[in-house]
Each structure stands twice: as structure tokens, then as C-alpha cells.
Design goal:
By secondary structure, the protein is an alpha/beta fold. Helices cover 32% and strands 9% of the residues. The chain has 14 helices and 12 strands. The longest helix is centred in the last third of the chain and has 37 residues, at 363-399. The protein starts with 39 loop residues before the first helix and ends in a 12-residue tail after the last helix. The structure holds pyridoxal-5'-phosphate.
């Protein structure tokens, strides 16, 4: 094995991950401004560091009581500029919302306004310690309180819990409140119903909270089958979990009837509110009979997401569930804000199901989301949902003649357009088209979800894309669909232009290699 070039460039790398044949013609392996990058372990050394540490005090030998490290720690060392370049090069091999359109359905990858970032970095918020007494955290408590009030107003709900850290965590919060309310009535019941098109987190949440999960069938037009649901309702049904707008991109027009039927049968209604971007400022889920709903601040309210976080999934509750909401929460007394914890929960303490987290650690999401809401105002938020829906319909109608759109006849879509692989030539799949999108310079759309559509492609452009950007995306999508329909097998080679070619995704998921082993030692 060649010693890695200290600049971080890999002089020779395995042929398998060579992006293009012509890349081999440069001495460095770099292609123009796209630099080849080795692992930090391959370029770092034991005796380099980006910081100057003081020489250890000769007399300090026994300060750790014999627990001192005796062997080298073997972490790769780089100078400061080498470190900065290493991570900058790696970041250039990735795709980001700041690079281009990111049509990942259900994920609402909208632009993150820089104003939000500026506010989130104000020292008064960013330097706050979670254990600081409320006398010095009044501003932060006011932000949490005000954001909660906005969420209650926008959803028409009675109470809010700001502590869940993500959508799935919010679902758990909502279902635990439902369980507590049913237990208070004497019976937690046994089954939670979820539509076949539900996000995987819904059945997972119900199971995690100790419920059995059963499917609710869908109508041919892609909505919940009300009559089938009514037949299944009974004393064992604790709740339904329904996403609205649903993951086929359609509004559940009979939501009120569904909620009434579930309530009449003594059950409660959970709404997965991850798709709130399609209806914010226009529909209040509280008016539709919802008892609990999570809101993804990192989707609808533009706080950054991807790579597993950070997120924030506040939950709003109906009057029925409000007493069971978790601690802590913020209350306003006169012009003071108070964090209600176990010690000062008063009567609420008897009914709350407990707490989800120790601290409101996602404070940066709160400042960003409130900034977003205040800078748009109620009118601006209604325009957000209107434009998000308009953009998705533009894509749906511009592509439906070349890309099978299973619910094209069910009326306008909401914020996302759903396609399937029905018309692709034998041997070509949704995966091939998605990899082709990478070559065209776009992040692929959500694939193979929802499960109810074969080879599903779920495209969510969001309101932050211009018509010019949508037109460019549509041109790429149409040309890929035509290649797939026409049996162009070169699509199987895509991506050709990405830093790495087609990766083995099954191996990556099943046998991830998460630790680096020095090949010279093994
Ligand atoms: C994103 C999403 C979730 C889960 O939210 P996380 O913040 O990723 O946990 C749940 N349901 C739907 C429909 C979603 O799109």
C-alpha cells in the first residue's frame, strides 16, 4: 500500500470507486475542482496536531491516581488547515438544500432562511445553560411559550408539549397521552389502527407504547376507507393514527366523519402532522376532531434537518388530552414565565403521564421556528401552504403523461406528487431513475414509499422553489422517465458523474463498517 500523500489527496484509490475512467489520467486522482479525499485515518499521523498543548508537568505524574494512559491514543492528527480542507472536501461530495432542489417527499426540504440562523445564534440563547434558574432564562421561556401559543392557534388545539425532539418522538408523546387518558377511564384498550400508507414511525410508535397495530384499508382513490374503518371500530380500539394530508399526497376529506366515528366508539384520534406544510394557515386540525398531533418544526417551520438531526416535534392536544400532557411546560403568570416541573405542577401532577426529556435542548429549533412564523405572519403562512401545493401540482401535471401517476384522477394533490414505475421497460426500476437524477444534479426523491404504490416516487418540491427551478427539474425528470419507459439500459450505470458510483446499499445497511482498522496492524 502506498503511503498516503500528506496533503490529503489519495494518489491511488481502488478502481471500484473510480467515478470516471478519465479520472485516472491526473496524477493526484483529482478531477478539476473535485478533489479525491482519503479517510482521515489514512492522512493523519500521531505526531501532528492543530493545537499547541503545554508540555505535561513532570510532577503531575500521579494526579490521576495510576489511571494515566500508558499507550498512544492513535487518533489521527492534522494541522488546522489540513483539517479544514479535509472536511470541506468531504462536504463537497455531499448534496445539500443550499446546493439545489431536494425533492424528498414527506421530508419538506425547504430553504432555511438565514434570518433564523442569525436569531438562533444570539448569545442570550446560545450560551444558555439548561440548569440556569428561571430568573435568568425569562427570554428563552418566553420564546418557548410564544411558539407554543402560535402552534395552538394555527392548529386550533387546547394545549401543547414542546419537549419532543423529533416527529417520531412526538408520536410517542401523543400515544402515551392517549394511553394515560384511556387508563384514567379504566381501560387502555388493545389496538391502534393505522392506514396502509402510514409512515413507518406510526405503527412503530403504537407498538412501542404497547399496542397491537392493525391496518385500515384504503379506497381506490388513495384515501381512508371510512366504511371499512367503521366496521372495525369497537371497545378494543384505543386510537387511529392518520396522516393528513396523507402520504399519497391527498387530503383526507372525510377526516371529521372518521374522528366522529372513532370518538363515538370511545377511541381517540392521533393525527400525524408531518405534512402540515400543505395546510398551515388554512386548516386547523382541532376543527377536524384531532386529539393529538405532532408538528415537525424541522419540516413546516424551516428549521434545518437531515443527517439525523437536530429536530423538534412539539405535540398539540385537545381539551380531552390536555390534562395528560407531559412535564415540563411553560406557563405565563402576569408578565413572568415559569417552567412547570414535578415540584410545581400542582393538580396537573396527578394526571400527567410523566416526562419525555430532561431539558428543552432543542432551543435553537424554537428560536428558528418562531423567527420563521413571525417573519411570515398568519397571511404569509397561508401563502406558504398555497405555494407548496401549487408547486407540487405543477410537477404532477407536467409529468403525468410520461410518469404513471396513480392518483392523478383523485383531484389535485397537496404538497407532494406521487408517481409509480408501471410504465418502465422490463429490467428498469425506480432505483435506476433515482440514480439518474443524481447525474442530473438533483437529490433523488423519496423512493418505494408509500408502500401502496408499486415503485413509488414521492416528489415534494416545497414552496421555496421558483418556476425556473421547477422547470429544470421537470425537464430532468421527464427525460429520465422517457429513458426508463423506452428501455435505455445505460440508466443501470447511473450515477456516472457522482464522486462515487452505485453503492451496495444493502451491505451498507446490513454490514456497516463503522470503525477503521489500520491495515498495517492486522
Ligand atoms: C418525517 C415524518 C415523520 C417522522 O418525523 P421525524 O422527525 O423524522 O421523526 C412521521 N410521519 C411522517 C408522515 C413524516 O413525513
Amino acid at each position: 500500500m502506498n503511503a498516503p500523500n500528506k496533503s490529503g489527496w489519495k494518489p491511488e484509490s481502488p478502481a471500484g470507486d473510480r467515478p470516471r475512467d478519465d479520472a485516472a489520467t491526473t496524477t493526484t486522482g483529482n478531477r478539476a475542482l473535485m478533489l479525491e479525499e482519503a479517510l482521515i485515518f489514512e492522512i493523519g499521523t500521531n505526531d501532528t496536531t492543530g493545537v499547541d498543548l503545554p508540555e505535561p508537568d513532570a510532577n503531575a505524574a500521579n494526579r490521576l491516581g495510576g489511571m494515566e494512559r500508558v499507550e498512544a491514543i492513535n487518533l489521527p492528527g492534522l494541522s488546522e488547515p489540513e483539517t479544514v480542507r479535509h472536511y470541506t472536501r468531504l462536504s463537497r461530495q455531499n448534496y445539500a438544500i443550499d446546493l439545489g432542489l431536494f425533492p424528498l417527499g414527506s421530508c419538506t426540504m425547504k430553504h432555511n432562511p438565514r434570518l433564523n440562523e442569525k436569531v438562533a445564534r444570539l448569545p442570550g440563547f446560545i450560551d444558555l445553560h439548561p440548569m440556569a434558574p428561571s430568573s435568568v432564562t425569562q427570554g428563552a421561556l418566553e420564546v418557548i411559550y410564544q411558539l407554543g401559543e402560535w402552534l395552538k392557534t394555527l392548529t386550533g388545539m387546547a394545549a401543547v408539549s414542546m419537549s419532543p425532539k423529533a416527529g417520531a418522538h412526538g408520536e410517542l408523546c401523543g400515544i402515551l397521552a392517549i394511553r394515560a387518558a384511556l387508563e384514567a377511564r379504566g381501560n387502555a384498550r388493545r389496538v391502534v389502527l393505522c392506514p396502509e400508507s402510514a409512515h413507518g414511525t406510526n405503527p412503530a410508535t403504537a407498538a412501542f407504547a404497547g399496542y397491537e397495530v392493525e391496518d385500515i384499508p384504503a379506497t381506490p382513490e388513495g384515501r381512508v376507507d371510512l366504511e371499512a374503518l367503521k366496521k372495525r371500530l369497537g371497545p378494543d380500539i384505543a386510537a387511529v393514527m392518520i396522516t393528513n394530508p396523507n402520504t399519497c399526497g391527498l387530503f383526507e376529506r372525510q377526516f371529521r366523519e372518521i374522528a366522529d366515528a372513532v370518538h363515538d366508539a370511545g377511541g381517540l384520534v392521533y393525527c400525524d402532522g408531518a405534512n402540515f406544510n400543505a395546510i398551515v394557515g388554512r386548516v386547523r386540525p382541532g376543527d377536524l376532531g384531532v386529539d393529538a398531533m405532532h408538528i415537525n418544526l424541522h419540516k413546516t417551520f424551516s428549521t434545518p434537518h437531515g443527517g439525523g438531526g437536530p429536530g423538534s416535534g412539539p405535540v398539540v392536544f385537545s381539551e380531552t388530552l390536555a390534562p395528560f400532557a407531559p412535564l415540563p411546560f411553560v406557563e405565563k403568570h402576569g408578565d413572568r414565565f415559569e417552567l412547570v416541573e414535578e415540584e410545581n405542577a400542582g393538580e396537573h401532577h396527578a394526571s400527567t403521564f410523566g416526562r419525555m426529556t430532561a431539558f428543552h435542548g432543542q432551543m435553537g429549533m424554537f428560536t428558528r421556528a418562531l423567527t420563521y412564523i413571525l417573519s411570515h405572519g398568519a397571511d404569509g403562512l397561508a401563502q406558504v401552504s398555497g405555494d407548496a401545493v401549487l408547486n407540487a401540482n405543477y410537477i404532477l401535471r407536467a409529468c403525468e403523461d410520461v410518469l404513471f401517476a396513480p392518483y392523478a384522477d383523485s383531484g389535485p394533490c397537496m404538497h407532494e406528487a406521487l408517481f409509480g414505475d408501471r410504465d418502465f421497460a422490463e429490467g428498469l426500476s425506480t432505483l435506476d431513475l433515482a440514480k439518474g437524477l443524481i447525474d442530473e444534479g438533483f437529490h433523488p426523491m423519496t423512493m418505494y414509499f408509500p408502500l401502496v404504490v408499486h415503485g413509488a416516487m414521492l416528489v415534494e418540491p416545497t414552496e421555496t422553489e421558483s418556476k425556473a427551478a421547477l422547470d429544470q427539474f421537470i425537464t430532468a425528470l421527464r427525460s429520465l422517465a422517457e429513458r426508463a419507459n423506452g428501455g435505455d439500459m445505460t440508466l443501470k450505470d447511473a450515477p456516472v458523474y457522482a464522486p462515487l458510483r452505485r453503492l451496495d446499499e444493502t451491505q451498507a445497511a446490513r454490514k456497516p463498517v463503522l470503525a477503521w482498522n489500520d491495515p498495517n496492524l492486522t
